[in-house]
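Worked example 3 (structure in, sequence out).
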């Protein structure tokens, strides 16, 4: 058996047996979020996530969410998450997340656009978690999911409120 498959199987075992409870909560909240953004017309899922937030939030509501999640967003963006489908040495590994981080940090951007950028970052964390690229033994991976969950716990109810 190739070593890569053995390592993947070991990771699968760790995910199945020792994943923190907040990983399940993240997944559940993301499913709720998906129920909302899934109706967006774009074929690209990250674009649907971002378009949904852009369409739903007023400037005032986006600012309220941003103020509530600043600490978590800042922790996530200390080192923006990479696309785990790529090798860490690939020059495109963090390109999308760094672009979103730049928008989030640019205070000349509207609160809506800054919140849209946060949603784009959360999407990367979601991809890495759902596609099995997060390791429960990694402190960084646990932190990324924990802080992303803290953002989703504010974002999803706020999104529901804006749309109802």
């Amino acid at each position: 058996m190739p070593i890569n498959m053995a390592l993947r199987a070991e990771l699968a075992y760790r995910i199945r047996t020792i994943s923190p409870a907040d990983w399940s909560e993240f997944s559940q909240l993301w499913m709720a979020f998906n129920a909302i953004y899934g109706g967006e017309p774009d074929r690209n899922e990250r674009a649907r996530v971002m378009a949904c937030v852009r369409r739903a939030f007023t400037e005032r509501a986006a600012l309220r969410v941003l103020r509530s999640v600043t600490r978590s967003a800042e922790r996530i963006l200390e080192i923006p998450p990479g696309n785990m489908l790529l090798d860490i040495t690939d020059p495109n590994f963090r390109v999308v997340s760094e672009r979103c981080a730049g928008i989030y940090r640019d205070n000349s951007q509207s609160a809506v656009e800054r919140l849209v950028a946060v949603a784009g970052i959360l999407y990367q964390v979601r991809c890495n978690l759902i596609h099995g690229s997060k390791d429960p033994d990694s402190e960084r991976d646990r932190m990324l999911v924990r802080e992303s969950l803290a953002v989703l716990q504010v974002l999803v109810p706020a999104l529901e409120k804006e749309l109802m």
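Notes: Residues 3-163 form one domain. The two ends are 52 Å apart (CA to CA).
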